[in-house]
Amino acid sequence: MSEQAQRPGDWKDPLVRKLLFVGGLVVLLLLPIEWIRGLIAEGKLPEHPTYEDYLEALAHIDTMKSSLEDLRRILGALEMELPT
Q: What is the pLDDT of residues 9-19, one digit of tens each?
């Protein structure tokens, strides 16, 4: 047998070269895919809060305060004390 047939891991073997070339291309093409995925994920992140977001949060706080006041009034009518 020839020396080349006995050592398939040799760099001069065409099959090894092709496999290394294809592996290198796969690695190179994975980088842009990850960059694109990163951009997509970044686009899904919430933006900075706006004035309307603050107003909506304040409205929720006011609703919670009024609900708590209603609960205190109901419990007061039942002569129970709400723990603070």
A: 566 788 888 99
End-to-end CA distance of the chain: 91
What are φ and ψ of residue 11, in 5° steps? -65, -20
Same domain, 55 and 76: yes
Global pTM value: 0.37
The tally of domains found in the chain comes to 2
Q: Are 29 and 35 in contact (CB under 8 A)?
A: no
Q: What Rg do the C-alpha atoms of the chain give, in angstroms?
A: 34
Full domain range(s) for residue 54:
48-84
- The answer, yes or no, to whether residue 1 has pLDDT greater than 50, is no
Q: Which pair of tokens denotes residue 6?
A: 């006995």
Number of Cβ within a 10 Å radius of residue 16: 14
One domain for residues 54 and 79: yes
